[in-house]
Amino acid sequence: MIAKLTGRLDSSGDGFAVIDVNGVGxxxxxxxxxxxxxxxxxxxxxxxxxxxxxxxxxxxxGFADAAERxxxxxxxxxxxxxxxxxxxxxxxxxxxxxxxxxxxxDKAAIARAQGVGPKLAARIAAELKDKVGGMALGPAAxxxxxxxxxxxxxxxxxxxxxxxxxxxxxxxxxxxxxVVEAQRRLGARAPLDALIRAGLQELGT
Length: 205
Fold this sequence. Notes:
The chain has 205 residues and is an alpha+beta fold. α2 (66-75) packs across α3 (83-92), α8 crosses α10 and α9 (172-186) packs across α10 (192-204). It is 46% helix and 19% strand. It is elongated. The protein folds into 3 domains: 4-64, CATH 2.40.50.140; 67-132, 5' to 3' exonuclease, C-terminal subdomain (DNA polymerase, domain 1), CATH 1.10.150; 136-205, no CATH class. It has a 5-stranded mixed β-barrel with strand order 1-2-3-5-4. The termini are far apart.
């Protein structure tokens, strides 16, 4: 199995790149995020690879980093999410954003991807919810500063603070991250009004 390709970028297009390795051109399917990070044609390029083999083809999927490849693998474990849909999701949400969207159960953020309807977005959020418990949510979340595992379920005050911020027009995943960070700073017993004010400050920075 091919796990990595390093060579010269021969060409790229909508959803693919061709990597020339010692004169052999490998067609690699990529997310828009990965394609945007590739150099100009003719320059050296390296991609982490996931190889899919079936009876009638061998497809290579390329990723700018190992985190994106890990999420590709995880997404394709969900019923109804094939390689094309997984790449579509990773085109609109980078790994850290995807962790936060699932932890926050922000189905609307996931549904922004082409080919992902409300039902599939809900299934992805539900099935992967327990699997993000040990992942960092990025700089706006508890694990970034405390180094601890993230708990997806919020206490009542934090949950109400998230709902209040959503009602003010913020995306659920943004509100979730802001409230988690606010609670980290203020303590687990912080009252609702304090969490809302601190959450707004986080969103304003």
